Amino acid sequence: MSNIMDIIAKETNGKSYKTFKYTYEGSDVLSFAYDDHQEITWERYGETVPPNGSINLKRKADSIANDKPLFGFFLDGSRHTYKVDDIAYSTIYRDSHRKEIEGIRKAIDKTGREIVLSLSPGPARLQDGSFLQKNANMWRLTDDFWDEWELLYDMFDRCNYWSPFIRKGNWPDCDMLPLGHIGIRSGERGKADRMTCFTKPEQKTMITLWSIFQSPLMYGGELADLDAWTLSLLTNTEVNEMHRTLEGQRQEYRDDEWIVWSGENKESTYIAIFNVSDEKKEIPGKLTERYLRKDAKEIWSGKKVTEGTEEVENHGCVLYQMKRI
Fold first, then answer.
1. Residue 100, CA distances (Å) to 56, 126, 170, 218, 237 in order
2. 193 and 183 in contact (C-beta within 8 Å)?
3. How far is it, in rounded angstroms, from Cα 100 to Cα 271?
């Protein structure tokens, strides 16, 4: 791990080592840093004791929006993202904290800088979609996402519902990618330190869905022991180019066994075909005839469609690229 920290320190001149955490009880800056031995040393703890009485969150939001700039530390140019937890939708209050979100948006705007506002966790509500577009850049579509097929299968519905809200500056967030070595300090959902429970086809399906949906891509595993397979999923240049340049993405087709997504950029049309059944299957002729042309190339394998369509593993997918017409 120290080697990775040394690399990051060299590339960023140490700037990435600084982080800040706020609590709603106050606006003091809380931070941690790394000492010369690359060990984490807390300068001040970021957790607070819950208050005994109730808190008027609207008053706090008004204070954030109207008092002296709360985000002044962003003005040095070294920080570009602000993440707020427990605000997109609260399982405690069964609501989104609109006043607080508006207050934070106004406070960010007062800095005069372009700062990404990320809200979590979810699931964010569709009825808040236009509001979130106006006041945030990223918002979580789900509660914490883990390595279970049922949760991944559920994301197809969520992505379909939220795709109309994707635009430049607005990125509905499917959550981090639980790939590689995960759960090192977690026992959530009854699982602890492990390699991802997703099969390789499921991992490819997750990366493909997140990418064609243009979800933010954030690796949720341990970088220090990143394996070659996981690295290949994260660094496929054609998939990443699609993710970076896509527009007009949408679900084209769905039945009990197959789901089809499409999207385009200036040069290419992309078609993702997902086998959501529990068996390995050939892609039905009606789907290949409707969505694939002779110039289609499968990105993950590099094979042309003229070489024949392969069987798709259960819970797996194929991702085709064609020249845009």
1. 11, 18, 19, 25, 39
2. yes
3. 39
Q: Please calculate the CA angle 241-220-27 and round it to the nearest 5 degrees.
A: 105
- Residue 99 CB neighbour total at 10 angstroms: 16
The residue with greater pLDDT, 48 or 224, is 224
Question: 225 to each of 3, 86, 200, how far by Cα in Å?
Answer: 12, 31, 17
**Mean pLDDT for the chain overall:** 82
Burial class (CB in 10 A: 0-12, 13-18, 19+), 101: buried
Q: Which candidate, 139, 68, 55, places its Cα nearest to that of 107? A: 68
Comparing 58 with 178, which gets the higher pLDDT? 178
pTM for the whole structure = 0.80
Considering only CA atoms, which of 263, 255, 260 is closest in space to residue 211? 263
The pLDDT assigned to 250 comes to 97
Nearest to 17 by CA among 2, 36, 3, 33: 33
Contacts of 123 (CB under 8 A, 6+ apart): 89, 140, 141, 142, 143, 158
Q: What is the rounded CA–CA span in Å between residue 307 and residue 131? A: 47
Cα 85 from Cα 140, distance rounded (Å):
10
E strand or H helix that includes residue 275:
strand 268-275
What is the bridge-based pairing of β-strands 247-254 and 258-264?
antiparallel
- The model's pLDDT over 34-85, given as tens digits with 9 standing for 90+, comes to 333 333 333 333 333 444 555 555 666 666 566 655 666 555 666 688 888 8
Among 48-52, 104-108, 300-304, top mean pLDDT goes to 300-304
